[in-house]
Write a structure and sequence with these properties.
By secondary structure, the protein is of the alpha+beta class. 54% of the residues lie in helices and 8% in strands. 35% of the residues are buried.
């Protein structure tokens, strides 16, 4: 009988990890391309936002003026994002976590309610859907409220939470595609550079936020997509070395004859680490807390695989080796990807869809390749990494190469029947 061996490092399960994070990214990009293809053909809607605060692009402007204006818009947008991120770090440092969660919930409600409602109105108008305003408002309000609860209450199925995160990313990305063309492309490059600096520089706001969260052993109150961890277990190997989910989990006892109101406290110790599973008396829920050690098979469903590191006899690890937020590994061992990465990936393919589907295919393959490279670097360096730079650089490069070189070549080959 074939036996499954637990992977030694993330590189051993890299293919599965890529699929688990690539699937929602692909769905988000596909939905944005679908929205652009359906709605932009019938509506010439333009938006005014922070991204166009310094310059409004017009068709009569020269290319140089458009570039300079787009550069000013991008600098203004990046400056606003930087200030907002430092304010987020300040509030998180002051332990205003509840306020941040309320703010994030309100932002999600606005995205789902107002942006989602506007797009729904576009569809109703385009396809002449018969619906009265009261029914529409009731459905929209319920849709938005359930989305906020699913994302921030963490008491719904993980599929529902992940689905709403993808929808939020899709809605925001579609509105970004309505920006002027030059502003969109320069903004994508500017955000990739900002992501690189914010995560890797010692004084970067995202790096400070991650370090603060890891020092407190807290989750960052932000919109972050977390893929399910890949688990491999050999039944013959005995106890499993895992890392327990930090969230509260529902624990069902296998033995039905235990009618006592008090629950057991199981402690497993070795020379370096301790694992504690504390079960409450009547609620059926427990709080699992773990450093690194061994976990019994009976609680394997609450765990995710460790990534082996050279401990060198030390009891603890440095803060840098535990930096697992951003695009990195969460406490559960699952890959985490910020929703902003979803948005800007989708903006790139959405803008490409406004020109031709050939550029969409090229940009999609470039983004997937960049995401794979970033995941490989994540597996090697074991620290939070920016997910935008590689994918955006490849995507922008492939877009312009496809638009100005590949398409011309293919069209000429088709005209002389070399390729058809």
């Amino acid at each position: 009988m074939a036996q499954f061996q637990r992977p030694k490092t993330l590189l051993d399960s890299l293919g599965e990890e890529i699929i688990r994070i690539l699937t929602p990214v692909s769905i988000c990009m596909f939905l944005v391309v679908l929205l652009v293809s359906i709605l932009n053909s019938s509506s010439s809607l333009s938006v005014t936002s922070i991204a166009t605060i310094a310059y409004s692009e017009t068709s009569s402007d020269s290319s140089w003026d458009k570039f300079l204006g787009a550069l000013l818009n991008s600098l203004a947008f990046v400056a606003v994002v930087t200030v907002a991120t430092f304010i987020l770090v300040l509030f998180f440092y002051l332990r205003c976590t509840k306020f941040l969660k309320i703010y994030m919930g309100f932002s999600s409600f606005v995205v789902l309610g107002f942006m989602g409602g506007e797009i729904a109105l576009f569809f109703i108008e385009k396809f002449s859907v018969p619906i009265d305003c009261i029914t529409f408002l009731v459905l929209l309000f319920n849709f938005a409220v359930i989305g906020v609860l699913a994302v921030f209450m963490s008491k719904m199925a993980i599929v529902v939470t992940q689905g709403y995160l993808v929808l939020i990313g899709m809605l925001v990305a579609y509105w970004f595609t309505l920006l002027p063309e030059w502003t969109t492309w320069v903004l994508l490059v500017a955000m990739a550079l900002y992501d690189l600096a914010a995560v890797l520089l010692p004084v970067g706001p995202l790096k400070l936020l991650v370090e603060l969260a890891m020092s407190r052993d807290e989750d960052i109150p932000a919109l972050v997509y977390e893929a399910r961890p890949v688990t491999h277990h050999d039944p013959a190997s005995g106890p499993i070395q895992r890392r327990i989910w930090r969230q509260r989990q529902t624990v069902r006892l296998d033995s039905e004859d235990n009618s006592s109101s008090n629950r057991n406290v199981n402690v497993i110790s070795d020379s370096n680490t301790t694992v504690s599973i504390v079960q409450t008396s009547h609620s059926g829920t427990g709080i699992a807390r773990v450093e690194e050690g061994q976990v019994l098979e009976s609680i394997a469903e609450l765990s995710a695989p460790l990534i082996n590191r050279g401990m060198d006899g030390q009891d603890g690890m440095s803060a840098e080796s535990l930096m697992l937020e951003g695009m990195g590994l969460g406490s559960s061992g699952a890959i985490k990807l910020g929703l902003g990465d979803f948005i800007f990936y989708s903006v790139l393919v959405g803008r490409a869809a406004m020109y031709d589907f050939m550029t969409v295919y090229a940009c999609y393959l470039a983004i997937v390749a960049g995401l794979g490279v970033t995941l490989m670097l994540l597996a090697l360096y074991q620290k939070a990494l920016p997910a935008l730079p590689v994918s955006i650089a490849l995507g922008v490069l492939f877009y312009f190469l496809t638009r100005f070189l590949l398409e011309i070549f293919i069209v000429q080959c088709s005209l002389i029947l070399v390729m058809f």
